[in-house]
Amino acid sequence: MRKGKKRALEKDEDEYKSAHVRFKNPFHTTRTYTVTLTSASDDSSQVNTVQKTCTIAYNPPTRPVLVIPPQPLNTPDLCDSVSPDSKTKTQSSVPLDQFGAHFDEIQDSSLAVEYDDTVGSACSCGVVSQMWTCRCLDCFQSPITCEQCFVQRHQTQPCHWVEQWNGTSFIRCDISALGHAITLGHRGELCHNISKKTPPLDFLIIHTNGIHRTKLLFCGCVGCGNRMQQLLKAQLFPATTEQPTTAFIFGDLQSQLFRIAQIWKVVTKP
Fold first, then answer.
1. Rounded to whole angstroms, what are the CA distances from 150 to 136, 202, 207?
2. Do 58 and 31 meet the contact criterion of CB atoms below 8 Å apart?
3. Cα atoms found within 13 Å of the Cα of residue 113, Cβ hemisphere only
4. Which residues contact 139 (CB under 8 A, 6 or more apart)?
5. Separation between Cα atoms, residue 13 and residue 105, nearest integer Å
6. What is the full per-residue pLDDT of the chain (270 aa) written as tens digits?
7. How far apart (Å, rounded) are the C-alpha atoms in residues 4 and 36?
8. Rounded distance between C-alpha atoms, residue 101 and residue 91, angstroms
9. What is the pTM for the complete model shown?
10. Helix (H, G, I), strand (E, B) or coil at 99
C-alpha cells in the first residue's frame, strides 16, 4: 500500500513561514498544527484519511531593533543659512558679552595677583633682616609678611599654605618649611614639658586644601592623653590608634563621609 502525507494548515493574515512550516505568530517558541495522512491501496479502491494534531518547537526569529543615529544639532547647511544678525541672543549670552568687553581688565587683574610690589621691603615687625616674602591666599586679603610674622599669625591655622617669594615667583609650601612645628595641647603654644631641642615628628595631615607634609609635637603634660586622644582633641582624626603619623581634618572627613553616605543611598535604593 502506498502511503502519502499531506500537511494542511489553516491560513491566516499573520502566517509566518519558517522551515517550510507556516505559523500564525512567528515569535512563539511552540506551534500546533494539523497533519492530514492520506493512504490508498494499490488499486486505489480504498482511501483512508487520518488527521492528527502535533506540537513542535523551534527557535523564533529575533526581533529587529531599529537604531536611529543621532542627528547633529548644527549642520553646516543650517549654520550657513542663518545670518549672524538673525540669531537671537539667549539670556546666558548677554552676561558673557558684558564680560567680554572687560576682558583686558580681568586679565590684568588676574596676572597682578602673581606679583606684589612690596616684596623685599623691610617687615613692619622691625626685626633686622626680616623682609616681606610670605603671603597667605587662604586668608582673605592677608597682607604680605616676613617668615616670623607669618608663623605667628598662623599658629592656630597651620594648614594654610605659604606662598613664599623665591626671587622670581611665589611658590607654595607647608608652614614647616619656615621652621614651624604644630604643637598640641596648648592652643598653638609650645608645651612647657618639652624641650625646644626636641625634634618634631614628621606628620601627614589631609586637609580640604591638600595634603600637608608637616612637623608636629605632642603635649608632654601629665594627663594629656596618648597620641590618639590628643589628635582627637585637636579635631584631627588619626589614621591608626597606635602611634599615628597621619590624620584627617574633621571637616574634610565629615564631607567625605557625607559624600559616601549619599553614594551608598543611591546604590542601595530599591
1. 8, 21, 19
2. yes
3. 10
4. 157, 160
5. 76
6. 444 444 444 444 344 444 444 444 555 556 666 666 666 666 666 667 666 666 666 565 666 666 666 666 655 554 455 455 445 556 667 777 888 888 889 888 888 888 888 898 999 888 888 999 999 999 998 889 999 999 999 988 999 999 999 988 899 999 999 999 999 988 888 898 888 888 999 999 999 899 999 999 999 998 889 999 999 999 899 999 999 999 998 876 777 677 777 777 777 766
7. 9
8. 17
9. 0.57
10. helix
Element holding 23 (H helix, E strand): strand 21-23
Tally of residues, the chain: 270
Beta bridge partners of 206: 211, 248
**Grid cell at residue 228:** 590618639
Nine cell digits for residue 39: 493512504
Query: Residue for cell digits 559624600?
Result: 259
Look up residue 149 and give its three cell numbers. Answer: 610674622
- Cα separation of 152 and 157, whole Å? 10
